[in-house]
Amino acid sequence: MKYGLMAAVIAVTGPGLISSVQAAEVSTTTLDNGMEVVVLEDHRAPVVAHTVWYKVGAADEPLGKSGIAHFLEHLMFKGTDDLAAGELSETVTRNGGSDNAFTSWDYTAYYQRVAADRLGLMMEMEADRMRDLEMTEDDVRTERQVVLEERNQRTDNDPGALFMEQRNAAQYLNHPYGIPIIGWRHEMEQLNRDDAFAFYHRYYAPNNAILVVAGDVEPEEVFELAETYYGPLEPTPDLAPRVRPQEPPQLSERRLTMDDSRVAQPYVMRSYLAPERDPGAQEKAAALEILAALLGGNSTTAYLARKLTFEDPKAIYVGSYYNGTTIDDGTFGLIMVPTPEVSLEEAEAALDATVAQFLQDGVDLEEFESLKTQLRAGRIYAEDNIEGLARQYGQELAIGLSLNDIEAWPEILQAVTPEDVMAAAEEIFDRRKAVTGWLMPSASETEETAG
Amino acid sequence: MTRLISLFSAAVMTALTFAAPAHAAVDIQEVTSEKGIEAWLVEEHSIPFTALEIRFEGGTSLDREGKRGEVNLMMATLEEGAGDLDSQGFAKARDALAASFKFDAYIDSVTISARFLTENRDEAMALLRQAIMEPRFDQDAVDRVRGQVQSILRSSATDPGDIASNTFYNMAFGDHPYGTDANGTFESLASLTREDMFTAKERTMTRDRVLVGAVGDITAEELSELLDTLLGDLPTGGAPLPDRVEPALTGGTTVVPYDTPQSVVIFGHKGIERDDPDFIPAYIANEIFGGQSDSRLMEEVREKRGLTYGISSYLVPFDHSELIMGRFSSGNGAVAEAVEVVKDEWAKIAQDGLTEDELEIAKTYLTGAYALRFDGNGPIARILVGMQAQGLSPEYIATRNDKVNAVTLEEVNAVIKGLYDPENLTFVVVGQPEGLSVN
User: Fold this and answer.
1) d(CA A336, CA A266)
2) Which residues pair with B266 in a beta bridge?
3) Which of A62, A92, A172, A385 is deepest in the core (most CB within 10 A)?
4) Cβ contacts of residue A221 below 8 Å, gap of 6+?
5) d(Cα A111, Cα A391) in Å, to the nearest integer?
6) What distances in angstroms separate CA B176 from CA B3, B111, B243, one per listed residue?
7) Interface list for A 272-311 with B (CB within 8 A)
8) Is the whole-model pTM more than 0.90?
């Protein structure tokens, strides 16, 4: 069975291996003002996904203004000089569509899903709010309460999410990936209209945006519409390259323990700083991706599961992940949820011993071949989910990968050898670059449970 | 103003609102196999794989007395070994074919969602047949999965959202299966045996309860053969379905004290049956009230007052009872006000109904959004099975939007009068709410 609880923990890790593929017809152009346009065709249903990706995210925020990228994402649904507050979403709804937006460390994206013949209307409104956002002090005050409630819901009410926030802050010594996307509460409480506009005016511009349209559309028609609606927008001059504070050499292992009365199921997590996918150089990332899949990519046949839930059952769940679709250093992680009779100390020791054994045993060739087959099949299954593809393209382009990089990725994954995987494993498991965290119930709760 | 292009005028905007919605072109074939298994099929040969959805009506509501959790545990253990393959062997064989089989247990049904390539369809189906016809339920597999369910139960006991929904359903349905956690209790889980797994399977997965939807690279003939292989030898005669139950929700607010900064709130009362002729008007009413992203509840609780990140309401038509429910979370200091706003809105819609404008908005949204549901082979296969469960014909897809458009303001407001009942609106609040009046 799939273990539900951990799906939530693992959900932080970004796109899964199987979806990291390319399929569908892809066409592209760049407008004179610098806006990139990518079209993915799927003519099976008369539907289109219209998505705009800004190459700015939480890791680009000014110091002390954590949460402003995400707060601005909310404020983008207020009005413009031509649209009343809420009118954009209302218009999407009135056309039978749905819309939303999301913010990551590396990008901010807005999307609508609607009947294909409404694409022009979506572009018109999205182009309007790229340059002409308006908001009142009142809008800002109310929406700040909404994002604080969002933080309550996603983070403060969930000890697992609080624990992740703490581990993440320990993982990055200098890089802003250590700051939560939603923001630290004390800084969120101070975010104001000027902060939002300063961020908006600088980063929301056609030369900092990528349009990805996917569905029942013809590329030429999309390019024309894009020219009509997005073409006239003024670019931001002198946009600096995205250079964030980088990590210094990490020389010392970090260890965290956290207890919370709301924790019922303790677990141990370890994350290692890991190299990310780089334009033109994705080979090491590909080896890490395969390593994560072989070691702990599923809960039955992956190495850790085989050893720790089947042969010598100490884990309810054990897994590994690689999060490398990022601009700067990502993470490689291990997680183990022990059975009730196994302490976190024993769990961590067993996890380490099993990883050490993997380094001895090497890659199981049968598993390796099976994984390659699944990757190839993944490309076929991915064609069935055009919006998933749009999301993958948008995300990968927004972190600076080229279309060539995206299209080469499946081949690079296929070309990974067992030797590449073991070399990546030898390199990644460096405790000096690692954060180990134990999440557990508060002492009094443990006694109650035991009694 | 830096704006260089002009928006459509308001008049054009309105005209667009009434443009014809996208049409879901779904050509359904009804297939009956030699052994009499029926299925709905949509052929879609452009991608070389098939999505197959199999649903057995009954679900976890068929758990026997004292055996709560048996159907859920059984479904979770089906993939843990079959025929001559143990758990590892089964997973390896499935992965080598790059097929995926998902086994799920719901309150009124259990489902199998399969996805497999055309190039090895026969091998994939032979493997799935083993899971359905010859599951092993090895003792070590049952114990391992039981441990996972126990872990879920432990987590659920400290999750404010789960505490809220378990409390709410228990208040509504008491000892009826709808009123208790389908995972079971620690006690009932501990008592379940390997034998119980075989029995639970016999009681739930039977030919007379099966519904099938297939979408993808497969012909009617091929599907017919596959159905016989896969399901033709299942026994008939599932366990008796549970009795109808009326939700015992008569108003008031119940607080479950829990030390966490944000309170989780669930509210609702008796709803409307799925096959009630008034279901579509009720669905339209809920869409405006709390269904869509700019519903009345979202406007009043989030947009105007900033009291929550999100709030929604929904119709819950179980097979043997029905609710209208909603849910949100608010900081402990804000939740009392949010509850008052929900009560006021409930009273307001019960009193005044919808406006003509709101009805039009709901119609254009629902008719436009319908086609958007048909996005991919898997989702369409699930829709096909859902339609069969509701007793709808394949023609429903073509006529559904007409049914929505035919609803008049008088009709919808008459249905609202019977549905929204401020007296019986019942709240469960989990957290440390401040200043909340409890009755």
Assistant:
1) 9
2) B327, B428
3) A92
4) none
5) 10
6) 61, 22, 8
7) 298, 300-301, 306, 309-310
8) yes
